[in-house]
Amino acid sequence: MTASLYLGLDVGTQGVKGVVIDPDARPCVIARAGQPLDLLPGLPAGAAEQHPDDWWNAVVEVVHQLIDDDAVDPSSIAGIGVSGQQHGSVFVDPDDRVVRPAKLWCDTSTTAEARELTETIGRAVPVGFTASKVTWLARHEPDNWQRTDGVLLPHDFINLRLTGERTMEAGDASGTGWFDVAARCFDDAAVAAVDPQLAGKLPRLLETGEAAGTVSPAAAQQLGIPEGILVAPGGGDNMMSAIGSGATRAGSVVMSLGTSGTVFTRTDSPVIDPQGLIAPFCSSDGAWLPLLCVMNCTNVTEEIRNGYFPDDPDALERLTDLAAAVEPGCGGVSFVPFLHGERVPDLPDATGTITGLRPGSFAPGVIFRAALEGITANLAAGVERMKRLGVTVDALRLVGGGSKNPLWRQMIADALQVPVTLPEEAESGALGAALQALWSHQRGESPDLTSDDIASDRVPLQDVVVKPN
Question: pTM for the full model?
């Protein structure tokens, strides 16, 4: 059989998801699988960590699930792409063994270091970015820093396990705090400010579309797939979601309702926010991806679900039905959803707040609707800032777990006063990674091929169009 399948992996905070695509099929996704992940327990307030080896173990399980599908012949896999949660800090020793658990994007224990770096570097370095995690390690765990031979991002670590090579690409690297976004290269002054030893611990930076390597014999044995399969550069989850949701041309705007909430769009030049609230990311296909990220989204709705109906598998649907019966405004109840601090606005030490409570206000539908309204209002405020920076928002593609909620979809359309559409494939990060693998593989024969050429007819939209009320 001719090699024609592509595997996409998305290593998120809550789990690893995978898809296999057949580029000639419609729809192109022919298999999917998933494996949950948890945060490490017992950490101090503000800390959020996972062990990178747990990511890899979940990847191995997901790949085995995928190749066990009757539709997937492992010998037909021509490429693999990896999407990963952004900003996490992975430290490896000279033998590529993990030095300590990774601090994640939602870890706020490095707030002091982030503020110092903002002053030193002269531009905003949000607490979620990788830079402050490196400075924190050198300061608080100097022995671990001296053991560290390589600094990677989460998707880079999976690429390392796949190929045996340490690499990084511009999209994910632009979320570190030590990257020159306009020039698409490491910023030497910022690297030195983070730590004088950091430059010697950084991996090779890939060119746009350049493969990270090929599947090593060791990885092939673990995964049950042939060695030598191309491994695409991959990228951060937002960069891969941009490809997987069809935001591959200027003007496409995507909102993702996941653990965090993001809004991003593709542009042909950098969009710089003087306050640093809108991240001036690079895309993973040669352009730029200005991005708004709020730290509190479906993690808030999960807290409410677990608080009211912890043992009900249909709890979110039940809460949505109850919330739909509540009038907009929730009778004056306001829910400020900053349970994990917040990045936009820049309030890393903030907490969640519920105000306007009266008798009857504790009903689950009231609290759930108030939470949805609070999250939506915060996202809408961020979108307004993007518009002031010159980003056009005439329509929105909605992805992520929260996009399945019809009440929330309508709420977003109303708040932004734009029509909302939904891609058919919910796992936009994994799909984007698979499509990038296809792009990276085919660029060898067609150097002028663009990601839009690859994605345009492989990311269909649902028939649903939610119009503002």
Answer: 0.91
